[in-house]
Amino acid sequence: MEPMHNSNEPLPRCEGPKLDPFPDPKAAIIFRRLLSDKDSEGDAHVVEATIGSTSYAIKLFKFYDFTTQRASLARHENDLVPDDLLQAHSDPFYNECRAYGRLKEHNLDGKVAVRCYGYLTFPAEIEAHLKRDFQVQDWNRTGKEYKKPVSERRPIQAIVKDLILEDAPLTGKAADKILRDLKKMRSVGVYPLDIRPRNYKAGLLVDMSIARTTPHFLFDIRGPKAVARMKSIDLGMWETMRERGKLNTRLRAVRDKECCAKLRPRKRKKTDSGQ
Asked: Which residues contact 142 (CB under 8 A, 6 or more apart)?
């Protein structure tokens, strides 16, 4: 099976970090098996594949309608964000391209997240193969596009990563490493926003499809307090993961709630149940 590579340029086409194409875009690829749930409502389908003699995990992204993100913006905010920027900062494929591009800039690729080797694009004909072999058929294409000949439909975009099959239970020691890695990512402007046990394998983050990487339009159009809240989401999710998993960790992502309550000048008892 031959991937179709539309260009040699890094993506996305906007200011900020970008991801380079896979070094050998014309290499023959053999899809071995589906790693994700074929009926998942997630952003992509993940397959184990062989390129040359090496096995990889290839994440094939579903198509994204950026108007979904636009609908979440206030009217005055919509006027500040052109369509191309909105797409580049909200499409799950571009989110991963930008996050990995930044990690590579700072030599963190493969250290805090599973190693990424670049992106590929596949012709729409690949859908028929994936449907036949793995019963995968949800790509979020519009009905209008399905009326076009297959050769005229948009190609499927994908990212090539290390294949990690280890799925060991999360421990307190591993959670501490995750937090240290998270802080490294945050220090270079990558906010993963989806810190859950299912998104980690062998202690490395494997999913950054909703990550926000600086520069990001939301950080420019929202006020300081709103931006601070957005940037703290992943820290709160780590704390939730620690608490729900009853993990014995040495570290904390945020200050102890009881300690903070004692320091408050107000006497009103805190009733917030958290996330």
From this structure: 63
Domain presence at residue 228: yes
48 has pLDDT over 70 = yes
Model confidence pLDDT, tens digit, residues 85-125? 999 999 999 999 999 999 999 999 999 999 999 999 999 99
CB 186 within 8 A of CB 216: no
Distance CA 226, CA 212 (A): 14
Helix, strand, coil percentages in the chain from 3-state DSSP, rounded to 5: 35, 20, 45
Q: Which of 68, 28, 34, 58 is nearest to 137 (CA)?
A: 34
**Is it true that the peptide bond before 10 is cis, omega within 30 degrees of 0?**
no
Q: How far apart are CA 44 and CA 36, in angstroms?
A: 8
Q: How many CB atoms lie within 10 A of CB 70?
A: 15
Going by C-beta distance under 8 Å and a sequence separation of 6 or more, which residues neighbour residue 39?
138
Residue 130 lies in a domain: yes
Domain residue limits at 71: 29-263
In a domain, 6, yes or no: no
